Amino acid sequence: MSDTPAPGAHDRRSASDRVLRMLSIVPWIAAQDGPTVDEVCALFGISRRQLVDDLNVVQFVGLPPYTPDMLIEVVFEDDRVWVRYADVFSRPLRLTPQQALGLVAAGAALASAGEAALAGPLATGLAKLAKLLDVAPQEALSIQLGASRPEILDTLRQAVREQRRVVIDYFTYSRDRRSERAVDPYRVFAADGAWYLFGHCHVARGERLFRVDRVAAAELGDERFERPPGSSDEPPELFAAAPDAPRVTLELPADARWVVDTYPVEEVIDLPGGRTRVRLAVASRPWLERLLLRLGPDAPLVDATDPSLHEVAPAAARRVLARYGP
To answer: Contact at 8 Å (CB) between 174 and 3?
Structure first.
């Protein structure tokens, strides 16, 4: 469920993205002793406006009574920036084993993204915590962000960094179709266990999201682009159903509860016997076919705003069976 139109930034996801971004940016700046603003922006793939906005928020982080000596200090001087922690942050924290393991897991998740910014203080602190817990960080949590090939990720990141158009061979899962797209890439980011490319697609003539693990090839072009004035720095929701998109209601057995965690369901009702009734938007008929075939006969489609969708599963099953011949 990607390659979706960009309806605008989603407030809840934007807030969580900002927190995660600051958790990696602030310690890195503090450890570098005055890096340039351009250096920080290039390393983290953000705009100068984003950086300034984020650090303006950081200046209000501290402890009661929130006097200057209890707040994080951010200083801009010419084109350089410094982050200095308040004295209170130098005191050792008393963590429960669960809290410490949570920090190790979160650090391992960030480190798995492979960013250079995640070395240094984060790696050192992660190693110390892991040693105290008698665990190895790489064994405490295994992080897999899709099946994206490193060379494709590198090409897309370079295209974002140098503002160069890129041509991708892309498989649209919801339409079950491959196509070649020319894209002006704005950002590469990780969300919900996968890598995504956000940018302007010249085929669709608008901003789109692309899952990187569905990019079969990426070719860096020579043509450079400029971001449109006033365009958002934040990517859209991963999936935003159109108001007029058809909806279906499925009744799931207990072992199919994964649908609730995998897809953006609009309604969840718990039924007796461990069954669950869910309502969700239909991205396309091919997507619904695959979902119903995967669920099987124990997860019937009990209602649909488009009555023809009741025939999707039987028709798909007949096509599959026909492939086996007599």
So the answer is: yes
Does the structure show a pLDDT above 60 at 118?
no
Token pair 């707040």 in the structure block, residue: 71
- Assess if CATH 2.30.30 describes domain 150-224: yes
> What token pair was written down for 156?
């897309």
**CA 130, 136, 141, 145 torsion: positive or negative?**
positive
pTM for the whole structure: 0.42
Indicate the residue type of 132: L
Rounded to the nearest integer, the mean pLDDT of the chain is: 75
80: helix, coil or strand? Answer: strand
Q: Residue 75 is encoded by which pair of tokens?
A: 């200083």
Q: Please, is 80 exposed, middle or buried when counting C-beta atoms within 10 Å of its C-beta (0-12, 13-18, 19+)?
A: middle
| Boundaries of every domain in the chain | 11-140, 150-224, 247-322
What was the pLDDT predicted at 36?
Answer: 92
The 10s digit of each residue's pLDDT in 3-50 is 444 444 334 445 556 676 777 788 888 888 889 999 888 888 888 888
Using DSSP bridges, classify how beta strands 267-270 and 215-224 pair: parallel, antiparallel or unpaired.
unpaired
Amino acid (1-letter code) at residue 180: E
Which of 248, 294, 304 minimizes the C-alpha distance to 316? 294
Provide the 8-state DSSP code for 213: G
